[in-house]
Sequence to fold (414 residues):
Amino acid sequence: MKQSLLFAPTLKEAPKDADVKSHKLMARAGLIKQTAAGIYTYLPLARRAMNHIERIIREELDQRDCSELLMPALQPRDLWEESGRWGEYGPELFRLKDRKDRDFCLGPTHEEVITQVTRDYINTYKKLPLALYQIQTKFRDELRPRFALMRGREFIMKDLYTFHTDDQDLDLWYDKIMKAYTVMFERMGLQTKIVSSDTGQIGGKEADEFMVMSEVGEDTISYCDTCQYGANQEFSGLHEKDPCPKCDSGTIKEAKGIEVGNIFKLGTKYSESMNAYYNDKDGQKTPVVMGCYGLGISRTLMAVVEQNSQEHAMVWPKEVAPFYVHVIPLKTNQEEDMAAAQSIYKTLNQQYDVLIDDRDERPGIKFKDADLIGIPYRVVIGKDLKDGLVEFTNRYTGEKKLVKVAEISQHIHR
Fold:
């Protein structure tokens, strides 16, 4: 794509209300624009990165026999009355009325809707297990929206719901999806820690969170320095230097974390209250056992930037990067330079997503913007072109070298 046609309004200074690294960088790099408190427009670079995050999610879930659907954001009060949550959920629930004075809410989550969607279909054990997911905009009226995409009032999320005959089958799928999440986050370039958590407003009997370790995280994690034990401190009540409750030799340490995923064993909480029953092998009417698996896509984008950036520059993980190669001709008024840049762009664009900086700007501006945008590989066409060479930079290693034009692709790695 031509950078002159890319809407990426970079800024010299971060907004005054940006108080964490990722917020500052995303605003300065032209990824997001605030519309109101806790409400953001995702600009083209952010949208491209989020498309890659969503692609990873779809690939991992589809190969595990999960099916995608799309549920409405606007949900009727009646469904929430069935589950008992209309009066329980609290002020975070956006409530509204239609012209006929009927009550609705903007969905912060979709347990009620998915139960209503499936309860008539799942009437026999022969239709179980079942796994359905969506990628959808969610709404929560947060009291204090902050840190840009970390805690917003409108955000993008992936929900997966699984349906089972019994707890044993739920346990198998819970473990399968937990492993899928681990793979997803690794592909997104994130280091995560799985910790036990409270079930909160979603409910159920057991829950785990996927945490990205970060000093700007809102949650405090208690974890063992010896074994794999980890828990949200609000859930565990454990503190620094406490003995590990799981092993004999470990000691508890503390760290801040950003929650990017939360998974729940719902059990029969919603199926019993909303009359979702199936006939088992003996013909007995039995409540469907459910699991719920959330992943915050917009929050994951923020965590990726937070974990993969320096103060004034990003370096996108390979599978999330909005573009893979950045071609930068320094003199757009030089016919030979632009011809070479266009040729390199067309060749590389057959294999990779390539951005070409065709803007008539000074080299300093081009380099500053390139650092902010953070594309993994950079090809600069400058004074060495007369010798058939261009400057090639691997942003992951920091290595910068002159390479032959014909050999550029040999230095780019998937």
About this structure: The first strand starts at residue 32 and ends at 36. DSSP finds ten helices and 21 strands in the chain. The chain has a mean pLDDT of 96. The longest helix spans residues 167-187.
